[in-house]
Automatic annotation (TrEMBL):
Highest taxon of the lineage: Bacteria
Protein's recorded name: Macrolide ABC transporter ATP-binding protein
One of the record's GO molecular function terms: ATP binding
Entries under InterPro entries matching the protein: AAA+_ATPase, ABC_transporter-like_ATP-bd, ABC_transporter-like_CS, ABC_transpr_LolD-like, MacB-like_ATP-bd, P-loop_NTPase
Keyword ATP-binding: yes
CDD domains given in the database record: ABC_MJ0796_LolCDE_FtsE
Gene3D superfamilies with a match to the protein in the record: P-loop containing nucleotide triphosphate hydrolases
Ranges for domain ABC transporter: 4-237
A GO-annotated cellular component: membrane protein complex
Stored SUPFAM superfamilies: P-loop containing nucleoside triphosphate hydrolases
Keywords recorded for this protein, A-Z: ATP-binding, Nucleotide-binding, Transport
Pfam families, sorted: ABC_tran
Native source species: Candidatus Magasanikbacteria bacterium CG_4_9_14_0_2_um_filter_42_11
Length: 237
């Protein structure tokens, strides 16, 4: 059973009498444990597609099955619960709470979760991104790379099935970006599914597979031929 299966997905935004079609019929299957980079030029529909996959937006037509559940049949409350418990988000802009400690930022998803998780899991998530020494620091006191690592810890604290990363290295220098890719690579090696939107080829090459969108359609879906491994700082064939 695939983790994600979409067929014929379209998305049209309607503002008054104006209709703006963005996605024109997308078919895609993602297996559990995959690492997919979604690429495409500005306006290709990649962010819209990611928002649909992560339950942040609704498709217009087509079908979307997540773990064999038809997403279109779910209530808004059920979708919100799945979004909180099944999915972790990493954003380009970090989206941390200002003037709030690292611990409290990472613990935030647990406030809305029915899972039995608490201090131990929060501390473990923070340790996994090597920020235990910053656990009581206010988020405003952190560097960009540290903020993104806090965002990753927050994304994994609920032990999600899939991690969505939207331009995770977009606001970082290359060295710090490599650290972030190393963490995402490790999470995937541990069995988590990673779906990443990026416009950077070097970043996409860390994935196992690249899906290229153009004008709201999949132009190419292929394995990465020369995959980059941040752990070793090298490219393997």
């Amino acid at each position: 059973m695939p983790l994600i299966e979409v067929k014929g997905v379209t998305k049209t935004y309607v503002t008054g009498d104006i209709e703006t079609p963005v996605l024109h019929g997308i078919d895609l299957t993602i297996e559990k444990g995959d690492y997919v980079a979604i690429m495409g030029p500005s306006g290709s529909g990649k962010s819209t597609f990611m928002h649909i996959l992560s339950f942040l937006d609704n498709l217009t037509t087509g079908t979307y099955f997540f773990e064999d559940t038809d997403v279109s049949t779910l209530s808004s409350d059920k979708l919100a619960m799945m979004r909180n418990e099944k999915i972790g988000f990493i954003f380009q802009a970090f989206n941390l709470l200002p003037r709030t400690t690292v611990y409290d930022n990472v613990a935030l998803p647990l406030l809305y979760s029915k899972k039995e998780r608490g201090r131990k899991e929060v501390e473990s998530a923070i340790a996994s991104v090597e920020l235990s020494h910053r656990i009581t620091n206010i988020s405003n006191q952190l560097s960009g790379g540290e903020k993104q690592r806090v965002a990753i810890a927050r994304a994994i604290v609920n032990d999600p099935d899939v991690i969505f990363a939207d331009e995770p290295t977009g606001n970082l220098d290359s060295k710090t970006g490599t650290q972030i890719m190393r963490i995402l690579q490790r999470l995937n090696n541990e069995g988590r599914t990673v779906i990443m939107v990026t416009h950077e080829q070097d970043t996409a090459d860390h994935a196992k597979r690249i899906v290229l969108l153009r004008d709201g359609l999949i132009e190419k879906d292929a394995p990465v031929k020369h995959r980059r491994f941040a752990e070793e700082g090298e490219i393997r064939k």
